[in-house]
Amino acid sequence: MTRAAAPVGVIRDAPKAGALLRPLRREILAHARTPASAAGIAAAMRRPRQVINYHVRELARAGFLRRAGRVRKRGLVEQRYVVSAQAFVLAPEVLGAMDVTAGAAAAADTASASYLLMLATRLQKELSESWRQAEAEGTPLPLLSLDTELAFASAGDRARFATALTEAITRVVAEHTATAQNHDGRFRLVLGCYPAPSTHGDTK
């Protein structure tokens, strides 16, 4: 039975990130979301089998593809591969050392896009580190994720929502935050609200 791909794979080093610089390789990964052989991928992409086979081996060596069993076809046994994760994200440290805490503090306007992006970068960096440590220790991470969409009738409604939400979260955090002498680890809560990209199905 083929093991399911992880939802997300974190790229933590530059050489591995470099393996995806070629658009052809990203296209190969798209064709390997279900187990497929290099020959099958080459046929689907209408590319020479030798070319695709080379890139499949490189992607497997970098950890983007993993072996997914063999299949006999026309008297030959073909090795199948499948993506190791359904999506890949680049760890911030791959781009060089950075102090995301200082970056977030330096952005004076907490309602700016740059401030929210810095918070998202810190979230990705810290979660990636905690995830790696938890995997090494074989322990699950206690996490909470909320994702929703909403709309406002006016800018005034949006401002009142922001005020009410801030007050509510401040109150809940104060009620449930343990003292420094009695706590089960530190947690970070990050909340962001931003305009969702429009799609063809949106109505104005």
Explain this structure to me?
The protein has 204 residues and is α+β, with helices and mostly antiparallel strands. The chain has helices at residues 14-18, 23-31, 38-45, 49-62, 100-106, 113-137, 155-176, and strands at 6-11, 36-37, 65-73, 76-83, 85-90. Strands 2-4-3 form a three-stranded antiparallel β-sheet. It has two domains: 6-88, Arc Repressor Mutant, subunit A (Orthogonal Bundle), CATH 1.10.10.10; 91-176, no CATH class.
Give me some keywords for this one:
alpha+beta; 204 residues; two-stranded parallel ribbon; Arc Repressor Mutant, subunit A
Structural class: alpha+beta
Shape: elongated
- Overall pLDDT: 84
Contiguous helical run count: 7
SSE order, as H and E? Answer: EHHEHHEEEHHH
Largest sheet: 3 strands, antiparallel
Number of domains: 2
| Termini Cα gap | 48 Å
In helices, the fraction of residues equals 40-55%
The side-by-side strand order for the widest beta sheet comes to 2-4-3
Strand content: 15-25%
Q: What is the radius of gyration? A: 23 Å
Q: pLDDT below 50 for ≥5 consecutive residues: which ranges? A: none
Total E-strand runs: 5
Outline the fold blueprint.
Elements (H helix, E strand, L loop, with lengths): L5 E6 L2 H5 L4 H9 L4 E2 H8 L3 H14 L2 E9 L2 E8 L1 E6 L9 H7 L6 H25 L17 H22 L28
Parallel strand pairs: 1-5
Antiparallel strand pairs: 2-4, 3-4
Helix pairs in contact: 2-4, 3-4, 5-6
